[in-house]
């Protein structure tokens, strides 16, 4: 089971991540402003990084235990991991981002892709760990060929750590309202999800109202009008990506592998164009669905979102 989940248990939860940082000088001592905001606030952490071979210093610095350190409020390394590189670069280092750069480049996602992990048609929870299962849906208005996709994603979350594994991802087109509602109920039962979040803008609230009134699906709605907000919108996913809080199945030739490939393509196509944050590809339905899923995980596990 440990291999299937992408986790290893050894008196606690840890992940094995292959990370190959570029060889470069790692800042351990320079402050942002004079004697304020040191790169690393604690001397023992500085010593640990500087004692590491240069090729691995970036990795060691990233994995310093900043979240439990009493000096984290004074440490740039801790602040960068807390807010993510987008807000960190703009608000602390005042570095502008290219207007045409990808928000989620492939190299960002690569360390979270598990080449031996597959999507699962069902999931049995590990009785040793406190786990939760959440599901998200991005709705499709059009029933025409070439219209938006109806997207479903299901994830298992290890509650103590927030580590999330994507269990399932699939898309459909040309389904009417009744068919979509029946599918949502069926997939909820299939994965025994603790909570189901549904995109709910304007008239799309009809789906939520119908499911809440006529089924037992534990459904909540998520308004995507704030998707461009750096702290709570689509860019907020960067924080959990950079902290390696996701595991994505990526076994070649496995069930629904092409859906994972499509997600990576849509993520890479999401960024700034002409000063606007948007998906520059043909579709961004899976990106939006992943944002809904990440939103409910952060809200229910971390309590960082308004539910």
* Strand order within the widest beta sheet: 5-11-8-7-6-9-10
Secondary-structure-based class equals: alpha/beta
Overall geometry = globular
Secondary structure: number of strands: 13
Low-confidence stretches: 1-24, 95-100
The CATH topology of the largest domain turns out to be Nucleotidyltransferase, domain 5
Report Rg.
Answer: 20 Å
Distance between the termini: 32 Å
CATH architecture verdict of the largest domain: 2-Layer Sandwich
What is the average of the pLDDT values?
80
* Major beta sheet summary: 7 strands, mixed
The number of domains: 2
CATH class of the largest domain: Alpha Beta
What is the succession of H and E elements? HEEEEHHHHEEEEHEHEHEHEEH
Strand proportion: 15-25%
Helical residue percent band = 25-40%
Number of helices: 10
If you had to describe this structure to a student in words, what would you say it looks like?
This protein has 307 residues and is of the alpha/beta class. It folds into two domains: 20-92, no CATH class; 106-302, Nucleotidyltransferase, domain 5. 34% of the residues lie in helices and 20% in strands. The protein has ten helices and 13 strands. The strands form four sheets. It has a seven-stranded mixed sheet with strand order 5-11-8-7-6-9-10, with helices on both faces. Strands 1-2 form a two-stranded antiparallel ribbon. Strands 3-4 form a two-stranded antiparallel ribbon. Strand 3 and strand 4 form a beta hairpin. Helix 2 (43-50) runs antiparallel to helix 3. It starts with a helix and ends in a 5-residue tail after the last helix. Residues 1-24 and 95-100 have low confidence and may be disordered.
């Amino acid at each position: 089971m440990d291999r299937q989940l992408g986790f290893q248990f050894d008196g606690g939860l840890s992940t094995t991540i292959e990370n190959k940082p570029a060889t470069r000088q790692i800042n351990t001592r320079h402050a942002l402003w004079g004697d304020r905001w040191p790169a690393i606030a604690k001397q023992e952490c500085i010593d640990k990084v500087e004692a590491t071979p240069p090729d691995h210093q970036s990795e060691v610095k990233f994995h310093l235990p900043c979240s439990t350190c009493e000096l984290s409020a004074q440490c740039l390394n801790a602040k960068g991991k807390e807010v993510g590189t987008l807000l960190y670069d703009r608000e602390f280092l005042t570095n502008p981002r290219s207007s045409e750069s990808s928000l989620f480049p492939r190299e960002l996602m690569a360390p979270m892709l598990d080449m031996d992990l597959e999507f699962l048609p069902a999931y049995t929870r590990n009785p040793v760990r406190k786990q939760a299962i959440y599901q998200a849906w991005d709705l499709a208005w059009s029933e025409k060929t070439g219209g938006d996709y109806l997207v479903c994603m299901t994830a298992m979350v290890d509650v103590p750590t927030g580590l999330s594994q994507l269990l399932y991802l699939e898309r459909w087109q040309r389904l009417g309202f009744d068919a979509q509602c029946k599918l949502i109920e069926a997939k909820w039962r299939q994965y025994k999800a603790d909570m189901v979040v549904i995109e709910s803008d304007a008239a799309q609230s009809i789906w939520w109202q119908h499911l809440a009134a006529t089924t037992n699906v534990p459904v909540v709605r998520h308004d995507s009008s704030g998707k461009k907000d750096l702290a709570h919108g689509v860019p907020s996913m960067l924080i959990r990506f950079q902290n390696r809080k996701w595991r994505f199945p990526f076994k070649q030739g496995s069930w629904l592998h092409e859906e994972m490939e499509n997600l990576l393509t849509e993520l890479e196509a999401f960024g700034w164009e002409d000063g606007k944050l948007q998906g520059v590809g043909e579709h961004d339905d899976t990106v939006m669905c992943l944002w809904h899923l990440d939103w409910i995980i952060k809200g229910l596990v971390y309590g960082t979102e308004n539910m």
